[in-house]
Design brief:
- There is one protein chain.
- A hairpin with a 4-residue loop joins strand 1 (106-109) and strand 2 (114-117).
- The relative contact order is 0.13.
- The chain has helices at residues 14-42, 49-69, 75-97, 118-136, 144-161, 166-183, 187-210, 220-231, 239-251, 275-308, 312-336, 355-400; strands spanning 106-109, 114-117.
- The protein is 70% helix and 2% strand.
- It has twelve helices and two strands.
């Protein structure tokens, strides 16, 4: 059945297209509201500077998503191998050479001067590669050697990300565990892996208190301060959370309406880490619930696509990407309402950003690519069923004669 209007060109799950469209629209409004004063101060009074830049990034993201959804999803199985291999040396180089805000997370490509966060590439590469491995080993998924041939990938990527980006490493490991559960890995192996994870977290927390702060390696001191600030109720020690809570409380049920935020002048990074607090302040509790619903809706649409998908690779791919994006969104919103310590995770499709938004768009485009195949196989089944019904009708007519 041919699509109508714009859906002649946008194939796949319409629900996901609508979700991304609504999130993009909210993003433009929220970024404009949260960056107006910042742009006025640093861009010569041009209050629309950052929102125009963000709109261009969003348009590029939509272009990436469109091109990705036009590629047959089975091709991403081979592409995942290349991306996984590329991401490892990039993470190593970033760990030793990259630096932004005292954290080695970004790398700059020589000559063109383009910077991007390598963990964004690694996240998508790992999910794609893990989906491939789980699909490839479905026949012997319960064997010991299969577990080791699969688990090395998330362990390697997470260990490379962990020293400078603990939250991203944790999100990736949780996503990998969910994918392995769905993929049919024996529960005893997963329980053992989680046990190692809990022991590692315990060792990390113990190091915060046993080692003097001045001697803590890397970003351990930063993580310790974030956890301690989260635990304390002192407004001066936890300035970010205090300003976010003021924004959330000031929003009430229906909010102050677009453009009327006051906490955007006090919140650090109101356009990225704390954009959800600004949304609640301007659109109220109802607006915050609507945004939460959109991410849950995205995950639900992913589950529906995965259940209908005939190939195991497509199923694991959709589950991994949708769970990753939803979990990241939940963590960002948890930080904004002071349920979690500061993590630095952006809100997918809402936070102002560059490469993070593009890799998110690429991931959603891959999900849409799988949904295109699901739609085609559904049409094929409908055609087969119609032919079967026609055959039964002809047989009945012949019998009556």
């Amino acid at each position: 059945m041919e699509g109508k209007g714009i859906f002649k060109y946008l194939h796949g799950d319409k629900g996901i297209w609508y979700i991304v469209l609504i999130l993009s629209f909210i993003s433009v409004l929220a970024v404009y509201s949260s960056t107006g004063l910042l742009a006025y101060r640093y861009q010569g009074g041009h209050t629309g500077y950052y929102v125009l830049k963000h709109a261009m990034i969003l348009m590029c993201g939509w272009a990436v998503m469109y091109m990705a959804h036009r590629v047959k999803y089975t091709y991403y199985s081979r592409i995942s191998q290349l991306l996984f291999i590329i991401s490892i040396p990039l993470l190593v180089v970033t760990l030793f050479m990259g630096s932004v805000n005292d954290a080695s997370r970004w790398i700059t490509i020589p000559i063109i001067g383009f910077s991007f966060q390598t963990s964004d590439l690694a996240k998508l590469a790992l999910v794609m590669f893990l989906a491939r491995q789980l699909s490839k080993h479905q026949k012997d998924i319960k064997e010991n050697r299969t577990f080791y041939s699969i688990v090395y990938a998330p362990l390697l990527i997470c260990l490379l990300i962990f020293p400078e980006n603990l939250s991203t490493a944790a999100i990736l490991m949780i996503t990998s565990l969910v994918m392995m559960v769905v993929g049919g890995i024996r529960s005893r192996y997963l329980v053992g892996l989680m046990g190692v994870g809990f022991l590692s977290v315990g060792f990390l927390v113990a190091s915060f208190y046993l080692i003097p702060e001045s001697k803590l390696p890397g970003r351990f001191a930063t993580w310790k301060n974030r956890i301690e600030n989260f635990k304390t109720a002192d407004p001066e020690m936890n300035y970010q959370a205090t300003q976010a809570k003021i924004a959330v409380a000031g929003g009430g049920i229906i909010g102050k309406f677009p453009g009327n935020s006051t906490q955007r002048n006090f919140l650090p990074h109101p356009y990225s880490d704390y954009i959800y607090a600004i949304i609640i302040e301007e659109y109220g509790l109802l607006g915050g619930i609507c945004v939460l619903f959109l991410y849950l809706w995205l995950f639900r649409r992913g589950i529906i696509i995965a259940r209908k998908c005939e190939g195991s690779f497509g199923c694991f791919l959709v589950i991994g990407i949708c769970f990753l994006l939803t979990l990241q969104a939940m963590i960002n919103m948890g930080v904004a309402v002071n349920l979690l310590p500061v993590t630095g995770q952006p809100l997918p499709f809402l936070s102002m950003g560059g490469t993070s938004l593009w890799f998110t768009a690429l991931g959603v485009g891959i999900v849409l690519s799988v949904s295109v195949a699901v739609d085609k196989q559904g049409e094929g089944k409908n055609i087969d069923s119609l032919q079967e019904d026609d055959g039964k009708l002809l047989t009945a007519v012949s019998a009556n004669k």
